[in-house]
Design brief:
The structure is a single chain. With 444 residues, the protein is mainly alpha-helical. The chain contains 17 helices and four strands. Among the domains are: 16-107 and 203-222, Fumarase C, Chain B, domain 1 (Orthogonal Bundle), CATH 1.10.275.10; 356-424, Ribonucleotide Reductase Protein R1, domain 1. The strands form two sheets. Strands 1-2 form a two-stranded antiparallel ribbon. The protein has a two-stranded antiparallel ribbon with strand order 3-4. β1 and β2 form a beta hairpin. α7 (109-145) packs parallel to α12 (317-347), α7 crosses α17 and α10 (234-260) packs parallel to α12. The relative contact order is 0.12.
């Protein structure tokens, strides 16, 4: 198989990355770097740092010239960074040495590479936001339709108390809403331009270094950090943290879905599922499984990124190179997981009859907590808990529904206690609150 599933024709449909995948190609990286070089020249021309005629020529050429990644490979291997080779190719293609000499004036390779990365991460965040809004919309529609459809809640993988399918969907969707609401802050605190020169001092940029950096930020639609962040990888880490929270929420959805499609349960239908090569009766939960696998991969790369954030002195090649390996994988893991989550959210549907059966499958023991509180109304709470526990043991031993034992010995306990629809607590309200929040976000 290919070194990365994201570059594999064989796995292209299992781990789809959509438009995000096109952001992390060599050609996309070079295009982004040339955009940065062109914008830098234009800003410096406007400030009189370089001749304005040179700036105009460089900016125009940065939009027109195409550089083959292969032509830069040898230089990258020798220098450890691609910018020197890229500049050589770019200057040669300009065929105007009197103008080309002003390309990259005062900048360093890390300025160009980091700023170009931020341009691509900005687009990746926008794509992720678009996918999240679609997923939230599908979940909200279903939560509204099934706000009061009861099913067993699970804690530690076992039946706990009744909840509703709408509340489960709200539990899935609320963290995604929070992620979208946090995104603007992430953009402001992380999508930085980098322009501080070889050692972070901006000395080669001249007396207008700060103005140049601010102008470059404005020209590219990025934020001015007002300092060097060559060795402060907080901007990258904050983006990865946001991606990690989204990935955790998607993996929770996938793990829960797997539990609801297990043999003997199958309380939901996925809409689309996979075939087995040898067992015709099987319909495998491929999407949830892929999301979980992507979550594992994301976690490993996130550890790499955290280690890579510890730089040495004012510039650090080894730490920085490690970041190049991790950031694309993190972004594409999330993009692929979002792709699967969109299909899952649009296709998943409940089996209310099977949910009803699951609620009554264990002799009504799911209502034990409610029973203990009902008994506590006319006896001390510890005594009510003791009696409830004994009634549960009797029900299991005699294979008699808990409700029958209770009605025989405690006729004052209302029959509605054993009606799951009457024991949903705040579940329908939680579903409605999520729907309201999702609708408000879609209108904003």
């Amino acid at each position: 198989m290919a070194a990365s599933v994201f570059d594999s024709p064989l796995y292209a449909h299992l781990f789809q990355t959509g438009d995000a995948g096109r952001l992390f190609s060599d050609s996309a990286a070079i295009r982004a770097m040339l955009l940065v070089e062109g914008a830098l020249a234009k800003v410096q021309g406007g400030l009189g740092v370089i001749p304005e005629i040179s700036a105009a020529a460089i900016h125009r050429a940065s939009l027109e010239i195409q550089v083959d990644p292969g032509a830069v490979a040898a230089s990258t291997g020798e220098n450890g960074v691609c910018v020197p080779g890229l500049l050589t190719q770019f200057r040669s293609e300009m065929q105007a040495p009197e103008f080309a000499q002003h390309v990259h004036w005062g900048a360093t390779s890390q300025d160009i590479i980091d700023t170009a990365l931020m341009l691509r991460l900005r687009q990746a965040l926008l794509l992720a936001e678009t996918d999240l809004r679609e997923i939230i919309g599908h979940l909200a529609d279903a939560a509204q339709a099934h706000a009061a459809v009861p099913l067993p809640a699970r804690t530690y993988g076992q039946h706990a108390t009744p909840t509703s399918w709408g509340a489960v969907l709200a539990e899935w969707g609320m963290p995604l809403c929070s992620a979208i609401e946090e995104l603007e802050s992430v953009r402001k605190s992380s999508l930085f331009v980098s322009l501080s020169g070889a050692a972070g001092t901006g000395s080669a940029l001249g007396p207008k270094a700060a103005e140049t950096r601010a102008g470059l930020a404005k020209a590219l639609g990025l934020n001015d950090p007002k300092r060097s962040w060559h060795v402060d990888r907080g901007p990258i880490l904050r983006i990865a943290d946001w991606q990690g929270r989204v990935m955790a929420a998607l993996t929770h959805i996938a793990q829960s879905t797997l539990g609801l499609t297990m043999t003997g349960i199958t309380e939901v239908a996925l809409g689309a599922s996979g075939a087995s090569s040898t067992m015709p009766q099987k319909q495998n939960p491929v999407g949830p499984s892929a999301i979980i696998a992507l979550g594992h991969q994301f976690t490993g790369q996130r550890v790499t990124l955290q280690a890579a954030a510890a730089h040495q002195h004012q510039r650090d090649g080894g730490a920085w190179f490690s970041e190049w390996m991790a950031v694309p994988q993190l972004t594409l893991c999330l993009a692929s997981a979002l792709s699967h989550a969109k299909r899952l959210a649009s296709g998943i549907s409940p089996h209310p009859v099977k949910m009803h059966s699951a609620l009554h499958a264990e002799l009504g023991l799911i209502h034990a907590e409610a029973l203990s509180f009902a008994l506590a109304e006319f006896m001390p709470r510890p005594e009510a808990q003791r009696i409830t526990k004994q009634l549960c043991l009797d029900a299991l031993e005699k294979q008699v529904p808990l409700a029958d034992l209770v009605h025989a010995d405690y006729p004052s306990v209302p029959g509605s206690l054993f009606d799951p629809a009457a024991q949903l607590g705040q579940a329908p309200h939680d579903a409605a609150a999520f729907v309201s929040r999702a609708r408000a976000m879609s209108n904003s």
